[in-house]
Amino acid sequence: MGDTGWVLLVDDNLADVEAMRQAIIEYWPLAELRVAGDGEQALHLLAHSERMPGLIILDLHLGNVHGREVLLNVKADAKTCHIPAIILTGTDDAIERQACLDAGAAGFFTKPVTFRAFGPLIEQLRNLLGAGTRRS
């Protein structure tokens, strides 16, 4: 990913995690993906990482800490506030979308159903970061 760091995917749905992993392998093959299965794990990982991710992909409906709360924590912390955070969730609620964008999300996308459908999204995210396909 060049100097943009790694990608943090925060999602508790194993099928969605696997679909995203497969899409990244196919469409962004050299990106480093790390997964947090819930919001608490994501916040812990960010608090204890020496090298920050270049992108956070965040589901909203997580088991213990809601994704918007994770987003608010990320944007309130000087160590992580600069990291683009993309919401990738199963809901397409306009009020939720606006609340996330107002909280600092760089984008809000509704989940595709298959890993092939994630491909165009991965390409959009890569372009957002200006990232190539090579790992650092």
Give the gist of this structure.
This protein is an alpha/beta fold and 136 residues long.
Descriptive notes:
It is built from five helices and five strands. The chain is of the alpha/beta class and about 140 residues long. About 40% of the residues lie in helices and about 15% in strands. Strands 2-1-3-4-5 form a five-stranded parallel β-sheet, with helices on both faces.
Q: Can you give keywords for this protein?
A:
136 residues, alpha/beta, 5 strands, globular, disordered C terminus
Map the helices and strands.
Elements: E1 7-10, H1 14-27, E2 33-36, H2 39-47, E3 55-58, H3 67-76, E4 85-89, H4 94-102, E5 107-110, H5 115-129
Parallel strand pairs: 1-2, 1-3, 3-4, 4-5
Helix pairs in contact: 1-5, 2-3
β-strand percent reads 15-25%
Biggest pleated-sheet summary: 5 strands, parallel
The count of strands amounts to 5
CA-based gyration radius: 14 Å
Report the mean per-residue pLDDT as an integer: 85
Biggest sheet strand line-up: 2-1-3-4-5
Low-confidence stretches: 132-136
Identify the overall geometry. Answer: globular
Distance between the termini: 6 Å
Helix content: 40-55%
Number of helical elements: 5
The topology string of helices and strands comes to: EHEHEHEHEH
What would you call the structural class? Answer: alpha/beta
